[in-house]
Specification:
The chain is mainly α. Helices cover 97% and strands 0% of the residues. The termini are far apart.
Length: 157
């Protein structure tokens, strides 16, 4: 407004043609000021929008980093689990082998026991038979001695 009053006072002392040029210059300057203000406002709006977008992207980046860390933790846990599973598989295989060997050992021991029992039975039967034979021999001997004794008694009578 101060520039339009100074320019109207200027246009009074200059020719109408110059005054018209000055007026259009003044109007262009005012329009330029207003469009510059509009541009500044628009740039400020763009800047705010950009800052908002940046904050949004930063949040998204933090979220993505957190998910990545969780994924890495999950992957590490999975690797540990696989490692432990492989170790348990090896131990299970070893235990199965030991169990199989123990089973085979049990079968062998049972066979040995059965053989020993068979041997003991036959030894016992043999011993009983010998004992019976000895007993019969002794009984015959005693019988013979008894007969001899009886004969001697009769002879003595």
């Amino acid at each position: 407004s101060s520039s339009s009053s100074s320019s109207s006072s200027t246009s009074a002392s200059v020719s109408p043609r110059k005054a018209s040029a000055l007026d259009s210059l003044e109007s262009a300057t005012a329009s330029s000021h207003s469009s510059t203000a509009d541009e500044v406002a628009e740039l400020q709006k763009k800047l705010l929008d950009q800052e908002k977008t940046n904050r949004k992207l930063e949040r998204e980046l933090r979220r993505t980093k957190r998910h990545l860390e969780e994924s890495q933790d999950d992957l590490q846990a999975k690797e540990e689990l696989q490692k432990t599973t492989r170790m348990f598989d090896r131990q299970l295989k070893l235990l199965k082998t030991n169990l199989q060997e123990a089973g085979e050992q049990i079968v062998l021991l049972q066979q040995q026991r059965d053989n020993l029992q068979t041997t003991m039975r036959s030894d016992m039967e043999e011993m009983q038979q010998r004992h019976l034979n000895e007993k019969m021999k002794l009984e015959r001997k005693v019988q013979l001695q008894d007969q001899e004794l009886q004969q001697e008694k009769e002879e003595l009578r």
